[in-house]
From TrEMBL:
It comes from Streptomyces yanii. The keyword Acyltransferase does not apply. This is Fe2OG dioxygenase domain-containing protein. Keywords: Iron, Metal-binding, Oxidoreductase. Residues 132-254 form the Fe2OG dioxygenase domain. Pfam families: HalD. Belongs to the iron/ascorbate-dependent oxidoreductase family. InterPro entries: BesD/HalB-like (IPR056470), Oxoglu/Fe-dep_dioxygenase_dom (IPR005123).
Length: 271
Protein backbone atom coordinates (compact mmCIF):
# COMPACT_ATOMS: atom_id res chain seq x y z
CA UNK A 1 0.00 0.00 0.00
CA UNK A 2 1.37 3.46 -0.88
CA UNK A 3 1.78 6.15 1.76
CA UNK A 4 -1.12 8.06 0.24
CA UNK A 5 -3.38 4.99 0.41
CA UNK A 6 -2.38 4.47 4.05
CA UNK A 7 -3.16 8.10 4.86
CA UNK A 8 -6.53 7.86 3.11
CA UNK A 9 -7.38 4.71 5.07
CA UNK A 10 -6.20 6.22 8.36
CA UNK A 11 -8.19 9.41 7.73
CA UNK A 12 -11.37 7.34 7.84
CA UNK A 13 -10.43 6.31 11.38
CA UNK A 14 -8.61 9.36 12.79
CA UNK A 15 -9.94 12.93 12.45
CA UNK A 16 -6.91 14.36 10.64
CA UNK A 17 -8.61 17.71 10.05
CA UNK A 18 -8.79 18.32 13.77
CA UNK A 19 -5.55 16.49 14.63
CA UNK A 20 -3.09 16.72 11.69
CA UNK A 21 -0.73 14.04 13.02
CA UNK A 22 0.54 13.33 9.50
CA UNK A 23 1.65 17.00 9.14
CA UNK A 24 3.54 17.64 12.37
CA UNK A 25 5.74 20.27 10.75
CA UNK A 26 2.71 22.43 9.86
CA UNK A 27 1.82 25.25 12.31
CA UNK A 28 -1.20 23.28 13.59
CA UNK A 29 0.84 20.07 13.89
CA UNK A 30 3.52 21.85 15.90
CA UNK A 31 0.87 23.42 18.14
CA UNK A 32 -0.67 19.97 18.70
CA UNK A 33 2.62 18.44 19.87
CA UNK A 34 3.31 21.49 22.06
CA UNK A 35 -0.20 21.21 23.55
CA UNK A 36 0.28 17.51 24.40
CA UNK A 37 3.66 18.13 26.03
CA UNK A 38 2.32 21.07 28.02
CA UNK A 39 -0.74 19.13 29.11
CA UNK A 40 1.41 16.17 30.25
CA UNK A 41 3.76 18.50 32.10
CA UNK A 42 0.84 20.34 33.71
CA UNK A 43 -1.29 17.41 34.95
CA UNK A 44 0.38 14.18 33.80
CA UNK A 45 -2.32 13.49 31.24
CA UNK A 46 -3.33 14.68 27.79
CA UNK A 47 -6.71 14.03 26.22
CA UNK A 48 -7.62 14.54 22.58
CA UNK A 49 -11.43 14.30 22.27
CA UNK A 50 -12.85 13.29 18.89
CA UNK A 51 -9.53 11.75 17.84
CA UNK A 52 -11.23 8.60 16.52
CA UNK A 53 -14.18 9.25 14.20
CA UNK A 54 -17.62 8.26 15.58
CA UNK A 55 -18.23 5.51 12.97
CA UNK A 56 -14.86 3.89 13.76
CA UNK A 57 -15.58 4.14 17.51
CA UNK A 58 -18.90 2.35 16.97
CA UNK A 59 -17.32 -0.39 14.85
CA UNK A 60 -14.55 -0.95 17.40
CA UNK A 61 -16.99 -1.22 20.31
CA UNK A 62 -18.99 -3.71 18.21
CA UNK A 63 -15.82 -5.70 17.45
CA UNK A 64 -15.09 -5.93 21.18
CA UNK A 65 -18.61 -7.12 21.91
CA UNK A 66 -18.48 -9.69 19.05
CA UNK A 67 -15.15 -11.09 20.30
CA UNK A 68 -16.03 -11.02 23.96
CA UNK A 69 -16.08 -14.82 24.26
CA UNK A 70 -12.45 -14.89 23.08
CA UNK A 71 -11.38 -12.32 25.66
CA UNK A 72 -9.18 -13.43 28.56
CA UNK A 73 -10.54 -12.48 31.94
CA UNK A 74 -8.22 -11.58 34.78
CA UNK A 75 -9.33 -11.04 38.35
CA UNK A 76 -6.57 -10.41 40.86
CA UNK A 77 -5.50 -8.75 44.09
CA UNK A 78 -2.32 -6.70 44.11
CA UNK A 79 -0.74 -3.75 45.85
CA UNK A 80 -0.20 -0.35 44.23
CA UNK A 81 3.36 -1.32 43.24
CA UNK A 82 2.50 -4.74 41.70
CA UNK A 83 5.11 -6.15 44.03
CA UNK A 84 4.98 -9.13 46.36
CA UNK A 85 3.00 -8.46 49.52
CA UNK A 86 5.27 -8.80 52.55
CA UNK A 87 4.23 -11.38 55.15
CA UNK A 88 4.59 -8.90 57.93
CA UNK A 89 4.30 -5.15 57.62
CA UNK A 90 2.55 -2.32 59.37
CA UNK A 91 -1.17 -2.32 58.55
CA UNK A 92 -0.96 1.20 57.15
CA UNK A 93 1.88 0.30 54.78
CA UNK A 94 0.64 0.55 51.16
CA UNK A 95 2.60 -2.62 50.38
CA UNK A 96 0.12 -4.67 52.38
CA UNK A 97 -3.03 -2.78 51.31
CA UNK A 98 -4.56 -5.00 48.66
CA UNK A 99 -6.35 -3.61 45.62
CA UNK A 100 -8.71 -5.45 43.26
CA UNK A 101 -8.50 -5.44 39.47
CA UNK A 102 -10.63 -7.37 36.99
CA UNK A 103 -11.24 -6.98 33.26
CA UNK A 104 -11.30 -8.97 30.01
CA UNK A 105 -8.68 -8.44 27.30
CA UNK A 106 -8.95 -9.17 23.57
CA UNK A 107 -5.40 -9.78 22.35
CA UNK A 108 -3.77 -8.17 19.32
CA UNK A 109 -3.81 -11.37 17.24
CA UNK A 110 -7.62 -11.42 17.50
CA UNK A 111 -8.02 -7.89 16.12
CA UNK A 112 -9.37 -8.05 12.55
CA UNK A 113 -7.26 -7.12 9.47
CA UNK A 114 -9.56 -4.19 8.65
CA UNK A 115 -10.18 -3.15 12.25
CA UNK A 116 -9.83 0.58 12.92
CA UNK A 117 -7.51 -0.37 15.80
CA UNK A 118 -5.13 -2.16 13.41
CA UNK A 119 -5.31 0.67 10.85
CA UNK A 120 -4.49 3.28 13.51
CA UNK A 121 -1.86 1.30 15.44
CA UNK A 122 0.08 0.17 12.36
CA UNK A 123 0.18 3.65 10.84
CA UNK A 124 3.69 5.10 11.21
CA UNK A 125 2.31 8.64 11.49
CA UNK A 126 0.49 7.72 14.73
CA UNK A 127 3.61 6.11 16.23
CA UNK A 128 5.68 9.13 15.25
CA UNK A 129 3.12 11.58 16.66
CA UNK A 130 2.87 9.72 20.00
CA UNK A 131 6.65 9.56 20.33
CA UNK A 132 6.83 13.32 19.82
CA UNK A 133 3.86 14.11 22.08
CA UNK A 134 5.39 11.98 24.85
CA UNK A 135 8.80 13.51 24.09
CA UNK A 136 10.52 10.13 23.68
CA UNK A 137 13.82 10.00 21.79
CA UNK A 138 13.31 6.26 21.14
CA UNK A 139 9.75 5.10 20.52
CA UNK A 140 8.61 1.92 18.78
CA UNK A 141 5.45 -0.11 18.37
CA UNK A 142 5.37 -3.15 20.57
CA UNK A 143 6.26 -6.32 18.65
CA UNK A 144 4.19 -8.49 20.98
CA UNK A 145 1.64 -10.63 19.09
CA UNK A 146 -0.78 -10.43 22.04
CA UNK A 147 -0.08 -7.17 23.81
CA UNK A 148 0.70 -4.66 21.02
CA UNK A 149 -2.82 -3.21 21.05
CA UNK A 150 -5.73 -4.79 22.90
CA UNK A 151 -9.41 -4.16 23.45
CA UNK A 152 -10.38 -4.11 27.13
CA UNK A 153 -13.85 -4.85 28.43
CA UNK A 154 -14.93 -3.88 31.95
CA UNK A 155 -18.27 -5.44 32.89
CA UNK A 156 -20.30 -4.62 36.01
CA UNK A 157 -18.04 -4.78 39.07
CA UNK A 158 -14.85 -4.72 37.01
CA UNK A 159 -12.26 -2.10 37.90
CA UNK A 160 -8.56 -1.39 38.06
CA UNK A 161 -7.49 -0.90 41.65
CA UNK A 162 -5.13 1.90 42.63
CA UNK A 163 -1.67 1.42 41.14
CA UNK A 164 1.47 2.99 39.76
CA UNK A 165 2.29 1.87 36.22
CA UNK A 166 5.56 0.10 35.60
CA UNK A 167 5.99 1.84 32.27
CA UNK A 168 6.55 5.62 32.08
CA UNK A 169 3.50 6.27 29.88
CA UNK A 170 0.21 4.74 28.72
CA UNK A 171 -1.88 5.35 25.60
CA UNK A 172 -5.60 4.52 25.49
CA UNK A 173 -8.63 5.09 23.27
CA UNK A 174 -12.03 5.35 24.92
CA UNK A 175 -14.65 3.47 22.90
CA UNK A 176 -17.59 3.07 25.25
CA UNK A 177 -17.81 4.55 28.74
CA UNK A 178 -19.94 2.90 31.40
CA UNK A 179 -23.13 4.72 32.32
CA UNK A 180 -21.90 4.79 35.91
CA UNK A 181 -18.45 4.15 37.32
CA UNK A 182 -15.49 3.19 35.15
CA UNK A 183 -13.92 6.61 35.78
CA UNK A 184 -10.18 7.22 35.51
CA UNK A 185 -9.06 8.91 38.72
CA UNK A 186 -5.55 9.89 39.70
CA UNK A 187 -3.27 11.83 42.00
CA UNK A 188 -0.72 13.68 39.91
CA UNK A 189 2.88 13.02 40.97
CA UNK A 190 1.94 11.46 44.27
CA UNK A 191 5.42 9.97 44.48
CA UNK A 192 8.76 11.06 43.08
CA UNK A 193 11.83 9.14 41.99
CA UNK A 194 13.46 10.05 45.31
CA UNK A 195 10.35 9.99 47.55
CA UNK A 196 7.82 7.14 47.73
CA UNK A 197 5.49 9.34 49.85
CA UNK A 198 3.91 6.34 51.57
CA UNK A 199 1.84 8.61 53.81
CA UNK A 200 0.30 10.24 50.75
CA UNK A 201 -0.36 6.86 49.14
CA UNK A 202 -2.09 5.55 52.27
CA UNK A 203 -4.16 8.74 52.49
CA UNK A 204 -5.21 8.32 48.84
CA UNK A 205 -6.21 4.67 49.46
CA UNK A 206 -8.28 5.85 52.40
CA UNK A 207 -9.95 8.60 50.31
CA UNK A 208 -8.33 11.25 52.46
CA UNK A 209 -5.75 12.65 50.06
CA UNK A 210 -6.64 16.01 48.45
CA UNK A 211 -6.01 16.68 44.76
CA UNK A 212 -7.79 13.73 43.16
CA UNK A 213 -8.45 14.34 39.46
CA UNK A 214 -11.16 12.59 37.41
CA UNK A 215 -10.73 12.61 33.64
CA UNK A 216 -13.61 12.94 31.17
CA UNK A 217 -14.63 9.66 29.52
CA UNK A 218 -15.86 10.84 26.10
CA UNK A 219 -15.92 8.08 23.43
CA UNK A 220 -13.37 8.67 20.66
CA UNK A 221 -10.87 10.36 23.01
CA UNK A 222 -7.18 9.50 22.77
CA UNK A 223 -5.55 9.71 26.21
CA UNK A 224 -1.89 9.86 27.14
CA UNK A 225 -0.94 9.35 30.78
CA UNK A 226 2.19 9.36 32.82
CA UNK A 227 1.22 6.77 35.43
CA UNK A 228 4.56 5.79 36.91
CA UNK A 229 4.53 8.52 39.55
CA UNK A 230 0.79 9.30 39.53
CA UNK A 231 -1.33 6.86 41.54
CA UNK A 232 -4.41 6.01 39.46
CA UNK A 233 -7.37 3.67 39.16
CA UNK A 234 -10.49 2.90 37.14
CA UNK A 235 -13.50 2.92 39.48
CA UNK A 236 -15.87 -0.10 39.50
CA UNK A 237 -18.30 -0.22 36.59
CA UNK A 238 -21.93 -0.05 37.64
CA UNK A 239 -24.85 -1.09 35.45
CA UNK A 240 -25.22 -3.11 32.25
CA UNK A 241 -23.21 -0.91 29.90
CA UNK A 242 -19.69 -2.28 29.74
CA UNK A 243 -16.71 0.08 29.63
CA UNK A 244 -14.66 -0.62 26.49
CA UNK A 245 -11.33 0.94 25.63
CA UNK A 246 -8.21 0.10 23.65
CA UNK A 247 -4.73 0.07 25.15
CA UNK A 248 -1.87 0.80 22.74
CA UNK A 249 1.56 -0.40 23.85
CA UNK A 250 4.96 0.96 22.85
CA UNK A 251 8.57 0.49 23.82
CA UNK A 252 11.83 2.41 23.82
CA UNK A 253 13.39 -0.65 22.14
CA UNK A 254 12.65 -2.00 18.64
CA UNK A 255 11.11 -5.51 18.41
CA UNK A 256 10.32 -5.55 22.11
CA UNK A 257 7.97 -8.26 23.47
CA UNK A 258 6.60 -9.54 26.77
CA UNK A 259 8.10 -12.67 28.17
CA UNK A 260 6.02 -15.87 28.10
CA UNK A 261 5.09 -15.55 31.77
CA UNK A 262 3.68 -12.05 31.32
CA UNK A 263 1.75 -13.11 28.21
CA UNK A 264 0.22 -15.97 30.22
CA UNK A 265 -0.66 -13.57 33.02
CA UNK A 266 -2.49 -11.02 30.84
CA UNK A 267 -3.80 -13.17 27.97
CA UNK A 268 -3.91 -16.71 29.36
CA UNK A 269 -1.64 -18.06 26.61
CA UNK A 270 1.68 -17.37 24.91
CA UNK A 271 2.39 -16.58 21.28
O1 LIG B 1 -8.27 1.69 31.32
C1 LIG B 1 -7.76 2.78 31.61
O2 LIG B 1 -8.34 3.85 31.35
C2 LIG B 1 -6.45 2.88 32.33
C3 LIG B 1 -5.58 1.68 32.15
C4 LIG B 1 -4.44 1.60 33.12
O3 LIG B 1 -4.30 2.34 34.04
C5 LIG B 1 -3.45 0.53 32.94
O4 LIG B 1 -3.64 -0.32 32.05
O5 LIG B 1 -2.45 0.51 33.67
FE1 LIG C 1 -2.30 2.12 34.88
Amino acid sequence: MTELQQTTRASQVIDLDRYPIDRLDSPKGRALVAFCRASLAFEGACQLPGFIRPTAVERLAAEAVAKRDQAYRTDAKHNVYFEAVPETSAPADPQSMLQHSSKSAIAWDLIGPDSALRIAYEWDALTNFLGQALDMAEFYRYADPLGAASLMIFAEGDELGWHFDRSPFAVTLMLQPATEGGAYEYHHRLRRPDDENKAGVVAALQDEQPGRITLPNEPGTLSLFRGQYSLHRVTPVQGDTTRINAVLAYSTKPDDKMNTLTQELFYGRSA
